[in-house]
Amino acid sequence: MIKLTVRREVWPIRGSFTISRGSKTEAVVVVVELTERPHRGRGECVPYARYGETVEGVIAAIEALSDRIEAGIDRHTLLEIMPAGAARNAVDCALWDLEAKRSGKPAWTRTGFDQPKATITAYTLSLDTAEKMGAAAAENAHRPLLKLKLAGTGDLDRVAAVRAGAPKSELIVDANEGWTADHYRDFAPKLGALGVVMIEQPLPANNDGGLMGLERPVPVCADEACHDAATLDKLVGKYDLINIKLDKTGGLTEALRLKAAAEAKGLGIMVGCMIGTSLGMAPGMLLAQGARYVDLDAPLLLDRDRQPGLRYEGSTVYPPLPALWG
């Protein structure tokens, strides 16, 4: 018999984290533990208000299925009875972890991929004034890939300041739905000249038709517009890449399906994250293998991480040890 435990945890962010929708000073996560003695599987999710999620609602959704989970539900049945989102992610990743602990074989052996290797992660610069973002870039100029949070007005100045502060870093930018099509037409050629290699979710997900057929001096990546495989067809022709996040797909099981389907349609892959701990990032390391861009830097933005956590050396992140996950 499996015992389900669900809990809320709060992890302070170093300073604050700001995007076009607002700021936060702490990461609030939900952790699922599945105990089948002597084994324990864990998963973590981050409920996101942008998608209508709350911590209370996510916990309630998981606890509503406690009988089926404790009876030994499998991951594929889970996809049928829970919608994509944070709640399913925590349960799905806990099931992956429990399967690994039961079998004594790492989770990656069930993905069809080779053993995961270390990869370079982007490091995110929070939205701020051009001067402060330039200073933050200078402090992180040793990092090979920087991700900038943008908002619209003043963005060209922000990127120029970052480029001056970190002249050798590759740059990707994320507008978090804060632009219009006119912003893209105006900004993209100038951002390309500043060395920006990708623009993430420039337009609102529910009003992104303006991207269809738009000239692309800089490739565009879907984030808020891309959730699970069911959302993929409407992205073709609008976007060049998709950002796969486990909290959107509802876990690693669906994320692997989405990745394969997107690659079959010629879309590039970015693997991203919400602001959480290494437990939330660990399954993403399996998904990140072979991705064009990896953005699993959330533990670097926290004041402290859970122990043991993922190993970071600069911007290089290593696959999880079994004591953490998988």
SSE inventory with pairings:
Blueprint: E1 3-19, E2 22-36, E3 39-45, H1 55-63, H2 66-70, H3 75-81, H4 86-103, E4 119-120, E5 123-125, H5 130-139, E6 145-149, H6 155-165, E7 170-174, H7 181-193, E8 196-200, E9 220-222, E10 241-244, H8 246-249, H9 252-264, E11 268-271, H10 278-287, E12 293-294, H11 298-301, E13 312-313, E14 316-317
Parallel strand pairs: 5-6, 6-7, 7-8, 8-9, 9-10, 10-11, 11-12
Antiparallel strand pairs: 1-2, 2-3, 4-14, 13-14
User: Unreliable segments (pLDDT under 50, ≥5 consecutive)?
Assistant: none
Give the topology string: H per helix, E per strand. Answer: EEEHHHHEEHEHEHEEEHHEHEHEE
Large-scale geometry: globular
Radius of gyration: 19 Å
The profile of the biggest β sheet is:
8 strands, parallel
Distance between the termini: 20 Å
Strand order, biggest sheet?
A: 5-6-7-8-9-10-11-12
Helix proportion range: 25-40%
The fraction of residues in strands falls at 15-25%
Mean pLDDT value: 96
Number of helical segments?
Answer: 11
Helix vs. strand class = alpha/beta
Number of beta strands: 14
